[in-house]
Each structure stands twice: as C-alpha cells, then as structure tokens.
Specification:
The complex is a heterohexamer, with two copies of chain A, two copies of chain B and two copies of chain C. Chain B is built from four helices and five strands, in the order E-H-E-H-E-H-E-H-E. By secondary structure, chain B is an alpha/beta fold. Chain B has a single domain, classed as DsrEFH-like (Hypothetical Protein Ychn, Chain: A), CATH 3.40.1260. The longest helix of chain C is centred in the first third of the chain and has 14 residues. Classes of the chains: A alpha/beta, B alpha/beta, C alpha/beta.
Chain lengths: 98, 123, 119, 119, 98, 123
C-alpha cells in the first residue's frame, strides 16, 4: 500500500499517524511533508527508523521549490510527478493522510 | 455502470467535528457509497474519535448537530465501524462515551485492515 | 491504468489543486486514463469562471479547463458542496460539470486507483 | 471599545467565519463598536451572493449581510484575494464591499483591538 | 497579552508553540482547541503546568458542541462569546496562533 | 485617516511556503503596512523559518517563486526580521541558509517582544 503524506511533521500529526498505524509498504512525502526527509530536521531519526519498515520517497519538485533539494537524507528516494504516478500504479491501493 | 462490482471502501476519519467540515462531508460520502451497495468500513482514529462522542449540543455555536446521523448508519446496513484503541485512551474516552456500537481495534489491526481495502478516503 | 482524482481544497490557498493537476498531467503523459476528477468540499472553488489571478501567477482554473479540453477529462463538481459555496452553472468555468456525490463513488468503483488531494 | 476583525477562511469548511460572527454579535450586544470586518485569503468566499446552503443549515453569508444591515457594519473583501478566487461585484452579497488590503492595516491602526479568525 | 488557540493540540503544534514562546498572560482555547482542557486528554498535564504561568480559559459553546462540557479540567475557566469579547478588551493586545 | 498614529505591528510567520498561501499573503500585508508608515516587525518561527531558505526553485511545481521579495523588504525600510533560534536548530538550518540578514532570538526574547506589540497578525 502507498501512503501519501503532505504536511510537515513538525506542524501536524499526519506523518506520525501514518507511521503509527500503517503496516509497511511505501510512503511518499509531497508538499510540506518533504521537509521530514531532510538532514538535520527533527523528524530525521524517526524517518531513519521507518526505513526499516517502509520504502520512503520524496517528491523532488516539492523539495526543489523549498530550496531543500541538496539536503535529502540517505535511504530516501526522490521521484518526479511521473514517479508519483508510477508509485500509485505499482501499489494495490493508496491513502492520502489528510 | 458499476456492473455489480463490489469494492471495499474505507473512510478514515481523523478530525474533530465542527472545527472543520470534513467529518460531516465524510458522512455524506459514506451514505452514498452504501447506496451503491459497496462494502463500507469507517475508521475513527486520532481526533476523529471525537466525532462519535455522546452529548453534542451545538446550539451555542449556531451550527447543526449532525451526530445523530451516526446512529442512523445501522439503518443503511453500515455496520463496520472501527475505532483506534490508542486514540480513545489518549483522549480520555472509553467505549461508553460513544454514540454507537463500534469495534475497538489496536493500531496494528487497523493497519492490516487498511491494506485489504480497494479504496481509502481520508477526511 | 484508469485513475480517478479527488480534490478537497480550493485554488491558491492550499497546494492540493496544483499537486493534483501536475499528477494528472504526468499520468496522461504516461498514457494512463484519468477516469474523472472530482471536486469536493472547498475543491468546488476550482471551478469558478470568475477567478482572475495576477498576471505573473498561474491560472489554476484555466489550466484545468485547458487540460479537460485537450484530454476530454470529466471534471465533476459536487452539487451540494457547490451550492454551499456559491458555485453554480452561471459561474462555472469551461470543462466542468455539476453533479452528485455518486459520481465520486462511481469513480472509485470504476477506476483502478483513486488519489485524493487535500489539506 | 473599537474592535476590528479579520477572517482568513471561507464559509463551512472551517469554523473561522462562524466564530468571528458570534464574536461580533457578542461584542455589539455589549455595546462595543465593530470598526470593520476584513475578509482575506479564502475568507473572501464568505461574500459570495450565490451560496445556497441546505435548508436545515445556517446561511453564513446571509447572516453576515443581516448583521451588517442591522449594525451598519463595514464588511470589506480584499480585492486581490477576491480576484484570485472569483469574487467580484457581480456575485458580491449585500452589505459587502471590495477594497484594498490597506483597509485591513487601517482597521488595525484605528481599532483598539484586531482579532483574527482562521485555520 | 491574550493568546487565542483554535486547533487540537493532538493534531497541530499551535498550542505547543504558544506555550513555548508566549511570555505569560492569558490563553483562550476555542474551536477544536477546547479538547486540550478536558480531563484525560494527553495535553492535560501540559495544561496543568501552564496554569502556573497563564490564566487559561475555554470557550463554553465550543466545549458543549463537542459534548465535552462536563469534562473540563480543574483550574480552567469557561467563558461564553461575551466573555471572549471581555478577554480581548481586558488585555492590551491579542494573538491568534494560526 | 490614521492621524499620524504609529502602531507596532508584528507579523508572525509560522508556516512553510508553497504548501499554503499564507506566507505569500503575509508578505503582501507587510508591504502595505510599511506603506502606512507603521512600525513593522516580522517574526519567523516553527516552519515559518523555511520561508527564508535560500535556493527556492519553483519551476517544477509551476508556481511563482516569491522568495526574492524578502530581499526587497530592506528597500521598504522593513528591517526588523526576527527568527526563532530553536526553530532553526530543529530544522537543521543556520543563519547562512537564509536569504536575508535576520536577528536570531531565543523563544523567551520573542515572547517578550510580542508582548510589546499593538497588533499581532499570525499567518
């Protein structure tokens, strides 16, 4: 299953909820959620732990828009909108954690 | 149109009522989805568990109390209501505080259920 | 593959409509079908023909209309949500139509994947 | 005392407009003056004359219009935010006027207190 | 100074930000923020600590709407919309933590 | 109209750019407030510090990069830019990452400054 998260984990609880409840699969961080996958962010350790259970992706255009393109943490993969489409297609189902 | 196909729809309710419209709009889709004879599950997690709290009185905020609708779900054969145990506990609530009968589940069980769905809508 | 997309927020205030648009464009470029785009909640405000953003900004409504024309997309605005928010036939942009919430459920049934964009 | 109020979200989706309305009503009942209510961001959608909520729900737009009429309130809609979102003179509800962002700053200067309601 | 908070502290960070930065004065919880002042909520201990530095109020109509009118924690005062107006008038300035 | 009154306005920016419009709309009010010759302070705290991050490139999201405007504030005599030290640290940022010169403050200092304002607008 693909989990899509779009809010900064330092502002809202959606990433935490996803990590707490979701049963593995993939997580795609888009919009303001991309900050969670950047080096030095308070969420970094949490994300690193999550890499044991999830494949984690971040939407590159959202990362670049926010000037964070060069800060992505290790183990997280960058995709473009085409990659976003592929991720949705490859997984049996998806959920946007709004 | 649907050619008799039945899909598993899950509605994930994570937000408190009244502060935003999402809880109400979720209910609207739930009712329509049942009318399409689909397999409908409702999940209440995080602040979404507050949607089911007994005793809502909205006169003072001049808004409509839509919580009685949860009691009516049964009449539409919507019976799969799941509540996250950890969410209840973190909010000082117990099953007795809720308007309707629900199945209380651990977060792990909920995650597993989610995986089995065809369509997951989050509100 | 057949996708359906649901949008819960209006233009400009949240990125939801932008993200959904770029997702749809990428899916179409890859040869997928967009079975329907459903505008729900404040998402109905994406269908206002009266919007006029600053010259140097993107025109979110016009962009949807253009994509719909080029790819024969079915852009459906939820009637109940639209009435609450003042979207009617008289201010409905080209390429959108107003219909019931059943259209969202139907899209969920008929499409292989339903992706929601919101707040 | 002179109050000013600013509203950043549209009707129904968020409670902001409801809370602001009940705040204004209470302030007026207590004999305070509401110097201005300024609608900014998605708040401009509170001014749409085309809204038509369900019969059993509150009519947020009409409620503002009525309060404005009864108390000669100055309801100002930010022009730039309104253009982005499709609010113009042709779909502007009674009691509202469209003007510049300077009206918000001026209200902040002239009022004793400025209270913001948002998401 | 009067600090107005309108979001649930279990969903967003606004109450935490307010408690972290604000320099004392009064806090008024409205809309979904009222849950923070109810017994058994995870925020209860945090609020109790805050009572040493702030006077804390909760908007009664919002509490009643959510069926939580009988659960308010000790030390927090309930006000109606008129009381909300009084609080704004009594304090030199106010901020909505959006 | 304002009869020469000068008030202390503070704009509290707590949200990341592009995910929502608030950062952009805050800038608009800031510019207008300066045009009214008011005393203007900008505070960046929580995710608001991301608004000032260097190197924003918005082509990929087909949105307008408004971050150069922060560099232009100086030209409007808007010079009081305060950034929460703890917020920077929690996001792995330093002053070198920011587009403009700012005064970095502790949360306690920010709270004190806030108390001295006449009008506080939060975005």
């Amino acid at each position: 299953m693909l989990h899509i998260v779009n809010k900064s984990s330092l502002e809202r609880n959606t990433l935490d909820s996803c990590l707490r409840v979701a049963n593995g699969g993939a997580i795609l961080l888009i919009e303001d959620a991309v900050y969670a996958a950047t080096k030095g962010n308070e969420a970094e350790a949490k994300l690193r732990d999550a890499l044991a259970r999830f494949k984690i992706y971040v939407l590159g255009p959202d990362l670049d828009a926010r000037g964070m393109g060069d800060r992505i943490m290790e183990g997280v993969s960058t995709v473009d909108y085409g990659g976003f489409v592929d991720l949705v297609a490859e997984h049996k189902n998806c959920q946007s954690w709004l | 149109m649907s050619e008799g196909a039945i899909k598993k729809f899950m509605f994930v309710n994570r937000k408190a009522p009244y502060g935003t419209i999402y809880a109400l709009e979720s209910l609207e889709v739930v009712l329509i989805t049942a009318a399409f004879d689909q397999d409908v599950s409702l999940v209440f997690m995080d602040d979404g568990v507050f949607q089911l709290k007994k005793g809502q009185q909205t006169k003072g905020i001049e808004n409509k109390n839509f919580s009685p609708t949860y009691r009516a779900l049964d009449g539409y054969d919507i019976e799969k209501l799941y509540v996250e145990a950890e969410a209840l506990a973190a909010r000082g609530l117990t099953e007795d505080d809720l308007l309707v009968d629900v199945t209380v589940m651990s977060r792990a069980e909920l995650g597993k259920l989610m995986d089995e769905m065809d369509v997951v809508l989050s509100f | 593959m057949k996708f359906a997309v649901s949008i819960n927020e209006g233009p400009y205030q949240h990125q939801a409509s932008d993200s959904a648009y770029l997702f749809c464009k990428a899916a179409l470029e890859k040869g997928h079908e967009i079975r329907r785009v459903f505008f729900y909640n404040d998402g109905v405000n994406n269908a206002s023909s009266l919007t006029e953003p600053p010259q140097d900004d993107r025109n979110i409504v016009a962009r949807w209309s253009k994509l719909a024309e080029e790819h024969k997309l079915d852009l459906v605005v939820c009637v109940a949500a639209a009435l609450r928010r003042g979207i009617r036939d008289e201010n409905l942009a080209a390429g959108f139509r107003i219909s019931g919430l059943g259209q969202l459920v139907e899209a969920g049934i008929e499409a292989d994947r339903l992706v929601t964009f919101g707040d």
